[in-house]
């Protein structure tokens, strides 16, 4: 399989999150050309800060590999990692990260900061950016558009029925 095919699997994971009302972000970890972990955001369902797709996938991969070191793995994720996830990627020693859409508000793999390639750390990551960027970006754009519409409808309903 190639980067696009693995990213498609991450998109499939993101769609699972969307069905649950979660921000549609999916992650896949590959070791020796085999998918060993998949995950999607569960922050709203679990109400835990650490329930990002990347963190959940890293935890699963650690269990499968039997080590905290994921030195021969590639992480595919639909959205650029945030500072927390970038830190976990460094700590897990993942050597390669492939992501789809840039995160203009929290991206720490090149957009706001590049935590993954800062040579002051003892580990740097090869980055492949923008794989299926249009598809991954549309997932997020459509999700937040629907969320805003729901909020407007709720406000309108409350206003029309004098509910405060």
From TrEMBL:
Q: Does the keyword Methyltransferase apply?
A: no
The record, for InterPro entries, names:
APOBEC/CMP_deaminase_Zn-bd, CMP_dCMP_dom, Cytidine_deaminase-like, MafB19-deam, tRNA_aden_deaminase
Q: Which residues form the CMP/dCMP-type deaminase domain?
A: 1-119
Per UniProt, which keywords does this protein have?
Answer: Hydrolase, Metal-binding, tRNA processing, Zinc
Q: What is its EC number?
A: 3.5.4.33
Per its Swiss-Prot or TrEMBL entry, what cofactor is needed? Zn(2+)
Reaction equation(s) it catalyzes: adenosine(34) in tRNA + H2O + H(+) = inosine(34) in tRNA + NH4(+)
Q: Where is the active site?
A: 54 (proton donor)
GO molecular function terms listed in the Swiss-Prot or TrEMBL record: tRNA-specific adenosine-34 deaminase activity; zinc ion binding
* Enzyme class, broadest EC rank: hydrolase
Pfam families documented for this protein: MafB19-deam
Cofactor annotation remark: Binds 1 zinc ion per subunit.
**Binding of Zn(2+): at which residues?**
52, 82, 85
Summary of the function given for this chain in its UniProt record: Catalyzes the deamination of adenosine to inosine at the wobble position 34 of tRNA(Arg2).
How this chain assembles, per its entry, is:
Homodimer.
NCBIfam families in alphabetical order: PRK10860.1 (NF008113)
Q: Which family does it belong to?
A: Belongs to the cytidine and deoxycytidylate deaminase family. ADAT2 subfamily.
This chain belongs to the protein called tRNA-specific adenosine deaminase
Species per Swiss-Prot/TrEMBL record: Gracilibacillus ureilyticus
């Amino acid at each position: 399989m190639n980067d696009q095919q693995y990213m498609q699997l991450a998109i499939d994971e993101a769609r699972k999150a969307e069905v649950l009302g979660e921000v549609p972000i999916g992650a896949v970890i590959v070791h020796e050309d085999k998918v060993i972990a998949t995950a999607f955001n569960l922050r709203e369902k679990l109400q835990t800060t650490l329930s990002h797709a990347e963190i959940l996938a890293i935890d699963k991969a650690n269990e499968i590999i039997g080590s905290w070191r994921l030195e021969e793995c590639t992480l595919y994720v639909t959205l650029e990692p945030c500072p927390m996830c970038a830190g976990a990627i460094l700590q897990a020693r993942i050597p390669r990260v492939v992501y789809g859409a840039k995160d203009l508000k929290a991206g720490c793999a090149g957009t706001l900061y590049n935590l993954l390639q800062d040579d002051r750390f003892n580990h740097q990551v090869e980055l492949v950016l923008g794989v299926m960027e249009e598809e991954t970006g549309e997932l997020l754009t459509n999700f937040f558009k629907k969320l805003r519409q729901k909020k407007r409808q709720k406000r309108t309903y409350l206003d029309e029925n004098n509910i405060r």
